[in-house]
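Anyone able to model this chain together with iron/sulfur cluster?
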Amino acid sequence: MLKDKFGRTFPYIRLSITDVCNFKCGYCLPNGYQVDKKDNKKFLHLDEIKRLAKVFSKLGVSKIRLTGGEPTVRKDFFEIIKILKNDANINKVVITTNGYHLDEKAKMLVDSGLNGINISIDSLNRNIFEHVTGHDRLPEILKGIKILQELNFDKIKINAVLLSGINASEKDFNMWGEFIKKNKIDLRYIELMRTGDNLDYFNKYHISSKVFKDYLNKNKWIYQTFGKDAGPSLNYINPDFKGKFGIIAPYSKDFCRTCNRLRITSRGDLRLCLFGNTGINIRHLLQRDDQIKELQDLLFTQMKFKKESHYLELGETGLTKNLSTTGG
Ligand code: SAM
Ligand code: SF4
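re: yes, here you go
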């Protein structure tokens, strides 16, 4: 089992399989994905992903989240899910997606054996959704969610980035409330994070998640203490609602205490923290099956360098230019 010097264990990997994205979220890729002509390195191939997952599986990893960029733009996306589940024996394979063409993909996603889906929807208001993402695609995403539900797939969560003056008013919170009253779907607001690229956006739109916490307290939502696999979300329940509300507040003091995940970028960099300065490349050890031992040893050594906290509150953004390279 991978363990760091603060006693935290890591059964969970977030694997970015591409940097490419078809949306233009203001806080992430406001001008869309830009091809870097000087960069001729390709994203991890299928066989590299297979070896990677097999090694991590041997080290106790039971859950892999595919992310990006937009993971579903990869042509071999469904093949990757299959390999993780069947060849690498990963128990839980989940994804984070912007929901592009979800209506068309919903059935294939369910058939693939996927164990969970996090969909990013910053607002249930179509115009605001378009304003934030640069795409008028809310209806197809909501239709996709309906199809998932009709297929009895209920491991659905929605992420919304909390943006001052855009989706952080009582009216916005109520709109989500109506939605999760009827739907067994968890809605989590993520506090906007500052990255290397988004300083102006951050200064304009960042608002503390306290505003949402206050709303939840005022409306009698009950804080649920951490479960075993709770992750970084603070969850709130209400018996009148089918879904839960959640808050992901990376700037909060205890955020890193429950960290249980490592990240791998689409080019095979191991990231010990979303905002860490450590970014050792492990791709050269994914080329042959007989490199397993060497890779395991490297991973054990790297764990010693995982820091206790991300130090975001000190304005550190590490290597992260935007979250499309590390997958959020
Ligand atoms: N493209 C997919 C999507 O949007 O769901 C997966 C990758 S995206 C980088 C993963 C998550 O990170 C999304 O929920 C997105 O809203 C969130 N995100 C991106 N940049 C962020 C930022 N600066 N602060 C907080 N969340 C951010
Ligand atoms: Fe694309 Fe996701 Fe970044 Fe939006 S948050 S630009 S959907 S990678």
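Residues 46-58 form the longest helix (13 residues).
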